[in-house]
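ligand=alpha-D-glucopyranose
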Amino acid sequence: MRARRGVLLLPLCLLLASCATVSGAGRSTADSRVDALLARMTLAEKVGQMTLISVSALRGTCQGGQIAPLNASCLQSELAGAHVGAVLSGGGESPPDNTPVAWAQMTNQIQRYALAHNRLHIPILYGVDAVHGHNNVLGATIFPHNIGLAATWDPALARQVAAATASDVRATGIHWVYAPVSDIARDLRWGRYYETFGEDPFLASQMVAATVRGFEGTNFSTGVSATAKHYVGYSGAQRGLDRTNATLPLRTLQQTYLPSFAAAVHASVGTVMADSGAVNGVPVHASSYLLTDILRRQLGFGGVVVTDWQDIESLYDRYHLATSYNDAIRLAINAGVDMSMVPDNGVDFAHRVMALVRAGKIPQSRIDDAVRRILTLKERLGLFAHPDVNAASANAAVLGAHRALARRAADESMVLLKNQGAVLPLHGVRTILVAGEAATNVAEQMGGWTIGWQGVPSGVSPPAVTVLQGIKAAAGSASVVDETDPARAAAAARHAGVAVVVLGERPGAEGPADTETAELPADQTAVAQAVEATGTPTVVVILAGRPLLIAPLIQKASAVLMAWLPGTEGGDAVADVLFGRVNPSGRLPVTWPRQIGQVPLTYDQLPNTSADPDAVYHPLFPFGAGLSYGVYTTNGLQAAAHGRSVTVSVSVGNAGSMAGDAVVPIYGRADAAPVLVPDKLLIGFARVHLNPNQTKSVTLHLSLQPLAVVTGDVNGSGPPRIVPGPYTIMAGTEQVNVTVH
Ligand code: GLC
């Protein structure tokens, strides 16, 4: 194997005139190496680079959809015949034996076949959805889904989680992840709400940028290419119905939906994935306004635009915008798509593109631009120099790795929403009842995109600490009983000092996870009601990817802990908070409505002339809500504007008896904007560790860009800008005025 690899590399280096071991001279730039390669490529080889197929097109019947060993005839037709340059595993598309080593062997086999069977030995780029850890791989550590990570308000943590995920992904021979989701959560009925970093563009931007940097490392050398998805406006779909049209004023598109993608581009994200939906009646995959004018010219993105699943064909057979599949390909590639996630028939797609180029329907320059970006990405990822991986070390690298980080992430994601009579942290309780099937349901603890696309498949048991296990491990001398039946749970509650009712949501992804109610399944409501009816102090723990609209249960509970979808270490993290080993620091990254009739409900409401202004934003828990076991106070707010920035300082104190991390949001408002603006918008935040009775001064240098507005009339559409004039800066209960000149 070594000899073959040596032979393989030599022509590669000669070709690229690059590898120091061959040329000896100084390395030429990546660009010139890519240009040299591009100049040698045939149209067929170029178009192959623009073709991304599912691994299922390389196995079984080559028609996709089956988990089977790789099939030589599929490899031959797709990789040798059509020069396909990229392969992905969609959600759940694992090798037959779902272990890290089997993943590495699969990607190595594909890589080595491609290198040996294409004239220029261009390596394959393999992609996977690693959206909360290397989540398709059984045994990989699963981190909290993004909505929980957002609740930590800790970008540095998000970066560490992404870096840990990148190391697992690289260990299996994969160099490209379809993460982070950079969409903004606007409607909790949407099935992908939990995949976002919440409803606020600034918080989401900070978490997206940190995650991109965590995935990609300093220069991709040990990282993976991240993907900002799904560009753009995807989460604005009507009623939260996945993949439906989003009617978005361009002012809203610019001020609310684009900033997180701009942050990803600024963090040098390698790829952007287009959104399967449509905006204002135009499918994004056919929009040169979005894919070229905005993404390339306004945001300055220089990387690769990849489609989402089968979305070029959808322009024809779902949207009926294109008159044929060929017409759909012409529309999408000319709009700015560089690579098509076909995903099942790369040969057909490649032939159609070549026919369109030869017929002059797609300019050769468009093809060269796309291929140059793709080759540059592969070059930056080191794929030419190190195309495969040492499969033998994959299990040791991945299995059980990062458990402490996963627990810390889950700890910080917990949001304590209610704690009446300081029932928490639990102390001196002799008997604890743990009720509800979610207390032992790993699938509900992990959520969608875990082993399987829709979540942990039945019969599969990924390593995890359930909530019941976590509580039992932490309970010490207290006895723990557990029940899932309402009557038995009530009976047990009558003899317990406290009842912990664990509520969960069925795992799911995309459209199957859309909801019209956001309520609990009836059987879980019955258990909770039965336990609360006994009068025993009840702690409600929620495992869900969205605020569940269960106000009556919350009203009767003594305490409420939102645990989101905490992943492998979720059980220990819940117990850490319940027993006071961790002082909860999480804050809601979204609004928690009272009932479905308020949805969609976000905190950035505009001034209004409503008869009942309070009714406009009257949630059960507002954006940013979150309790700790201490009391944090902020005072002494000061702010000074300079140019387009503001320097803010404030003192933060811990009046409680426990050390903890205080999250301090800083809000702002443009007081003389030429258009309506919310009373407050997040412009910054700090996370401060405080011992009991300790006070610290926090100083932040913040851009006012989150307060920028798209000027103009109803039809305003250009990039947002920071308008001169008076601004108000807020922290805690204080506010100060500054002026931007
Ligand atoms: C799915 C999702 C996208 C994912 C892709 C590959 O349809 O929309 O988020 O990255 O296909 O699995």
